[in-house]
Amino acid sequence: MTDETCQWQGWREATERALYGAGGFYLRPEGPAGHFRTSVHASPLFAGAVARLLGEVAEELGTAEVDLVDVGAGRGELLTAVLAAVGTSLSVQAYAVERAARPDGLDPRVEWTDRVPGGVRGLLFANEWLDNVPVDVAEADAAGTVRYVEVARDGTERLGAPVSGPDADWLARWWPLREPGTRAEIGRPRDEAWATAVGSLTAGRAVAVDYAHVRASRPPFGSLSGFRAGREVPPVPDGSCDVTSHVAMDAAGGLPAGLPAPELVTQREALRRLGVSGERPPLGLASTDPAGYVRALASAGEAAELTARGGLGDFLWLTQRVPSDAG
Prior knowledge:
Layout: E1 9-10, H1 11-20, H2 39-42, H3 44-61, E2 65-71, H4 77-86, E3 91-97, E4 110-113, E5 120-127, E6 136-140, E7 146-151, E8 157-162, H5 165-174, E9 183-186, H6 188-199, E10 201-210, E11 212-213, E12 225-228, E13 231-233, E14 242-244, E15 247-248, H7 249-252, E16 263-266, H8 267-273, H9 285-288, H10 290-307, E17 316-322
Helix pairs in contact: 3-4
């Protein structure tokens, strides 16, 4: 290896550099849509569901003026589609939270920022954001000692110092490693990022959507992976690919007392509640309204992708309500 590739770092530091440093993967002009397909890109039905969710929040708050914050906004695709779906039914102050530069031609109603704004009254929505909050990786060595995994720029790994302090406490509570060779992503930075996001609301709902797991189903060897141009590739922290891992979503939901208990459901269930299902239209429509049948069939196909078992439908939606009188 060259001197550059021999510079060992923890996965959290290496991922931060690879994704958001100079020339980082997420700062490239093509954006996330150039490399992988999220629910936002799969179908306009997703944005329509978020628009209906925003309407529910506005109704709960008793106002037609509502904030919408998209955390990890990509190039503003979701916000653009939601604003179009809402139309004039609501007065929406839209914020795109993203570390990349504002894209040309974005709706001027969208405020572009690199941090979550404070005093939000409305809906904070984070689709596939937490999985890209960089985290360290831990592995139990042959003696059972849990150590940080260090990585070089070319993806080569070695075991480093024993995990200690808050990281060790997090693992003991949320993802204990008991067998040699087992691995975990230490989700503490994601929990903190989510708590900060929820703390920005004065009233409304915060929703995080991601591919995730809970304690009863943690992957024994972790889930660290890379993606490039629509394909899964080895996670190499050199800026050439996305570096991501599933979210320990039940840990992210562990917020301080004083707020209602968070809700955790699959995307399949969340979208069903918002009127999106993969049910095929009645066959009789084909004879009475052929064009309508074709449109309905296409919509059902898109809905089926968003709710599919083994795919996007298995994503988890973490919802935290923040009442007007919270705190």
